[in-house]
Amino acid sequence: MKTIKVIIKSIIVVAITALLAGWYFIIGPHSDLEGKDFNLESNGLWLQHAWVGNEQETAVIEDLALKLAKYDIKYVYVHTGPFDSDGTIPEERYKFASEFLKILKAKNPDIVALAWVGQVRSELDIDDSIIRKNITTTCGELISETGFDGIHYDIEPIAHEDTAFLTLLEETRTELGDSAFISVATDEWQPSLLSDLAGEILDQDIKSYWETDYFKSTAETADQIVIMTYDTSLGETEHYEWLVEQQIIYLTQILVDSDAQLLIGIPTYEDDKESFDPEVENMETGLKGVVQGLNNKRTNVSVFTGVAIYADWETDESEWGIYENLWQGIQ
After folding, report:
1. Span 29-79, pLDDT tens digits
2. Distance of CA 13 to CAs 1, 10, 211, 248, Å?
3. pLDDT, position 273
4. How many helices (H) and strands (E) does the chain have?
5. Quick check: helix, strand or coil at residue 226?
6. Which residues of the chain have pLDDT under 70?
7. What is the pLDDT of residue 272?
8. Cis-peptide, bond into residue 157, ω within 30° of zero
9. What is the pLDDT of residue 191?
10. What is the pLDDT of residue 75?
11. 255 in Cβ contact with 263 (< 8 Å)
């Protein structure tokens, strides 16, 4: 009889322990701070190509500078590419960049302007050392001759085992030097075990994710990592908010020993495609997920830098109002 009681007690203890562990890792303890308590006024925003591809009136650029200050935007990713297949970008493509940057920074000196450059990975053979050299040379010219503070790489998709991209980052740092700012747009973090399991179920080779070691390797060279936390194919708002929360929890743990900044991308576009539902993934749900993640006791808040809004040309006044409310604490 005593043996049975011991077994029953052991089962109960194991069950309670499993439940507590499950609660801790799936939900976890939270504080109840608001978004404004985490806003370091170091947020990011993607800007469309027209700012550097077309001539703009001075007053229009100055209005943009004031808008960036209003919404605590420090980093702007100005679409300057894409790269041609040989790794170059014709100057004609960004011929108004110098004037744009001059006016923008005169009105808002705190802005860090990064040339948003990229291409579809299959169209840009970064395994080729000559093409990588063209890319890094182009990036150097964008900084030295045009006035950008650095580079924002957006080459998609980059699989977590893509060593050529890590080599490109290292060669970019060598070309640009330590003073230039290197930012990278990345896929979400996902443990390889989960991706392997999903691949088995779906009978697909799932590559569009980054695992822990790849993030750490990227952070050895990059100054900033911006997670593209969208196009998740999720169909419920609570699932998306939970996913954003998990990205913050785990990425702040992964990057805690690096000097790289971490920004979380928030979508405001409304593309009609299978992998994206704007009713699920949007300014409100994204910011709620961010705040939940930063309130989670497992998060290393010191690693977090800000949110990055994708994209300026898709964000209307009502969405900026949500941003002001949830992130800046403006009612």
Report:
1. 899 999 999 999 999 999 999 999 999 999 999 999 999 999 999 999 999
2. 18, 5, 33, 31
3. 86
4. 11, 8
5. strand
6. 1-27, 192-208
7. 76
8. yes
9. 78
10. 99
11. no
Q: Is 30 helix (H, G, I), strand (E, B) or coil?
A: strand
**Residue 296 φ then ψ, to 5°:** -70, 135
N-terminal to C-terminal alpha carbon distance within the chain = 64
The architecture of the domain spanning 33-328 is Alpha-Beta Barrel (3.20)
Helix locations, 177-266, DSSP H: 192-202, 212-219, 237-254
Rg (CA), the chain: 22
Question: Strand pairing partners for 116?
Answer: 79, 152
Pairing of strands 112-120, 150-156: parallel
Whether residue 82 is preceded by a cis peptide bond, meaning omega within 30 degrees of 0, is yes
Q: What pLDDT, on a 0 to 100 scale, did the predictor assign at position 5?
A: 37
Q: What's the length of the chain?
A: 331
Rounded CA separation 78/324 (Å): 23
Here the tokens at position 66 are 């004031």
Cα–Cα separations (whole angstroms), residue 14 to 9, 10, 199: 9, 6, 31
Per-residue pLDDT tens digits for 275-318: 999 999 999 999 999 999 999 999 999 999 999 999 999 999 99
CB atoms within 10 A of CB 215: 23
Torsion of CA 202, 21, 35, 213, to 10 degrees: -50
CA distance 4 to 142: 75
HEC per residue, 159-217: CCCCHHHHHHHHHHHHHHCCCCEEEEEECCECCHHHHHHHHHHHCCCCCCCECHHHHHH
Q: Write down the pLDDT at residue 202.
A: 56
pLDDT value of position 201: 64
Domain ranges of the chain: 1-30, 33-328
Q: What is the largest CA-CA distance in the chain?
A: 88
Report the DSSP pairing between strands 304-310 and 261-267. Answer: parallel
